[in-house]
């Protein structure tokens, strides 16, 4: 089996302006934040960010790297409204594509399944169709007379996800309560990069969970980055909970440009993920 | 019997919204809906499925918002399973509403023009899919004319006028069952599906509701009072479902 381990620096080297990047996790839960921080360090711009959004979206809005955000919601969970995303929307600095969260899943599933769209009922009658004039309906070819939303595939250039454990071959394991949609993000993407709390030998993958927790197999990943505390400050159950104090500090940094500059300089303007981890400890 | 609080009426009204639902998933968003759904399950609607608010389906009814040490887990309900189930229709969600109009259109997306909103809220979340697929109710902790508006800025969850524009096949699973607030209970059981006062909580005058609603409600000649909890329900609320009295912090008694 190929050894897919790469560094955060090597990941940074893959990034290009204008990419469409899908980010796994959900809200402020098990987000691949170390890879998001690597995106920040890379300085790439004009990104389309596709996410069940949390601080991943907020940070890339605040740095000005996200040109477009595709979302069903953006939330920090314990802080319901993501202040940086909010600021970007209210300031008109990003282009937005808002879907029902089930439509969003169907879009990833269509891309993963290599079909142009999937039919569904969600969206009918709502303003999600009004604000997304590119969405079309489709008439059932059968005798039922149904007209449904044709949810178009959401193709990703790159998917990034964070798992609790993984091996060097790119198998990944979630140990928390919910796998979210990380496998779908990977299957909808050209390039798939998984960060994990800890890389362990393949023969130890069942030490902490049953085989049902091996949601990500190596066909779904191209590269693995070891990132202890990599989801910080989002939660990564059972390895650690959300760093609520830090999240509050992050949220408060949306209050002014000065506050954001200070947050950015203190935590994100680093030369490496290791430096970030040092700074949050000090 | 201890005094019945305004919040108790809200809890009972939330519970009543789930009456008759049977073996489906109740998805209450917020504390009082969660206590209400647990009360329904613990009394007249025993087959309801309820989660701990994360990913476990729990068979017992511990205090809403408790840490979960006493949970009896009967199943697994991660988000993807929630979506799968809601598409089957075996679900009744009780969501919040930043804005709601006379036909039950709900907005949780943004205030102002969606293209560049004055206030960005959560986003549509699951509201479009929920409302087209299964029964939906709403909980509003502060009844005001900022929430009950003439027209919502964005239709996240669809109401009856939007459903009426769809084909019978498209709208066949649409049902907005109840809207419950700190003042009363509302439904759409009128000829043209406009919002109606179903009951008022004791101590609330119809004028209080009218003043705090930004559109004309259907006001029946005889408006019933929201039913109080019976002794057994009150005991469940006080001793089991909300022992710390969190509900009356969300909806305090009127002064």
What does this structure look like?
The complex is a heterodimer of chains A (282) and B (255). By secondary structure, chain A is of the alpha/beta class. Chain A is 31% helix and 23% strand. Chain A contains ten helices and eleven strands. In chain A, strands 1, 2, 3, 4, 8, 9, 10 and 11 form an eight-stranded mixed sheet that branches. A three-stranded antiparallel sheet of chain A has the order 5-7-6. Chain A is globular and about 65 Å long. Chain B is an alpha/beta fold and 255 residues long. In chain B, the strands form four sheets. Chain B has a six-stranded mixed sheet, with helices on both faces. In chain B, strands 2-3-4 form a three-stranded antiparallel sheet. Chain B is globular, with a radius of gyration of 18 Å.
What fraction of the residues of chain B are assigned to beta strands by DSSP?
A: 15-25%
Share of β-strand residues of chain A: 15-25%
Helix vs. strand class of chain A = alpha/beta
Q: Give the termini separation of chain B.
A: 21 Å
Alpha carbon gyration radius of chain B: 18 Å
Oligomer: heterodimer
Largest sheet of chain B at a glance? Answer: 6 strands, mixed
Q: Let me know the largest β-sheet of chain A.
A: 8 strands, mixed
Supply the number of helical segments of chain B.
8
* Cα-atom radius of gyration of chain A: 19 Å
Strand order of the largest sheet of chain B: 1-5-10-11-12-13
Mean pLDDT value of chain A: 98
Mean pLDDT of chain B: 96
**Unreliable runs of chain A:** none
Helix count from the secondary structure assignment of chain A: 10
């Amino acid at each position: 089996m190929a050894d897919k381990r790469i560094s955060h620096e090597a990941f940074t080297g893959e990034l290009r302006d204008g990419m469409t990047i899908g980010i796994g996790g959900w809200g402020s839960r098990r987000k691949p934040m170390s890879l998001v921080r690597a995106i920040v360090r890379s300085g790439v711009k004009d990104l389309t960010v596709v996410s069940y959004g949390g601080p991943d979206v907020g940070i890339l809005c605040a740095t000005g790297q996200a040109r477009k955000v595709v979302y069903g919601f953006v939330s920090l969970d314990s802080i319901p409204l993501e202040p940086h995303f909010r600021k970007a929307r209210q300031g008109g600095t990003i282009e937005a594509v808002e879907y029902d969260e089930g439509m969003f899943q169907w879009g990833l599933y269509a891309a993963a399944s290599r079909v142009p769209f999937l039919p569904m009922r969600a969206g009918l009658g709502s303003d999600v169709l009004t604000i997304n004039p590119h969405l079309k309906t489709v008439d059932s070819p059968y005798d039922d007379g149904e007209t449904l939303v044709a949810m178009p595939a959401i193709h990703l250039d790159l998917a990034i996800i964070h798992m609790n454990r993984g091996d060097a071959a790119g198998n990944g394991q979630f140990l928390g309560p919910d796998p979210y949609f990380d496998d779908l993000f990977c299957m909808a993407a050209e390039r798939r990069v998984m960060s994990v709390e800890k890389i362990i030998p393949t023969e130890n993958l069942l030490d902490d969970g049953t085989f049902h927790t091996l949601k990500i197999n190596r066909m779904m990943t191209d590269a693995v980055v070891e990132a202890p505390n990599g989801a910080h400050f989002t939660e990564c159950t059972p390895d650690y909970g959300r760093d609520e104090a830090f999240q509050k500090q992050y949220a408060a940094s949306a209050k002014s440009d000065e506050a954001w500059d200070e947050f950015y300089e203190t935590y994100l303007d680093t030369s490496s993920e290791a430096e970030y981890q040092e700074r949050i400890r000090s | 019997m201890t005094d019945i609080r305004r919040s108790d009426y809200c809890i009972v009204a939330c519970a009543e919204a789930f009456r008759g639902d049977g073996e489906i998933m109740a998805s209450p968003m917020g504390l009082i809906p969660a206590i209400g759904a647990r009360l329904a399950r613990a009394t007249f609607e025993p087959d309801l499925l309820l989660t701990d608010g994360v990913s476990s389906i729990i068979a017992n009814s511990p205090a809403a918002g408790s840490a979960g040490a006493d949970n009896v887990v009967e199943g697994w309900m991660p988000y993807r399973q929630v979506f799968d189930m809601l598409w089957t229709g075996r679900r009744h969600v009780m969501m919040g509403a930043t804005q709601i109009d006379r036909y039950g259109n709900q907005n949780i997306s943004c205030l102002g023009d969606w293209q560049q909103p004055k206030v960005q809220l959560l986003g549509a979340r699951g509201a479009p899919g929920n409302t087209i697929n299964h029964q939906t109710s709403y909980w509003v902790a502060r009844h005001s004319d900022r929430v009950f508006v003439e027209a919502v800025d964005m239709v996240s969850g669809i109401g009856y006028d939007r459903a009426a524009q769809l084909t019978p096949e498209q709208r066949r699973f649409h049902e907005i069952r109840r809207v419950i607030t700190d003042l009363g209970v509302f439904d759409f059981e009128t000829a043209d599906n406009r919002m109606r006062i179903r009951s008022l909580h004791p101590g609330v005058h119809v004028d209080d509701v009218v003043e705090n609603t930004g559109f004309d409600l259907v006001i029946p000649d005889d408006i019933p009072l929201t039913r109080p909890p019976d002794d057994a329900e009150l005991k469940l609320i006080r001793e089991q479902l909300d022992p710390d009295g969190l509900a009356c912090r969300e909806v305090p008694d009127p002064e």
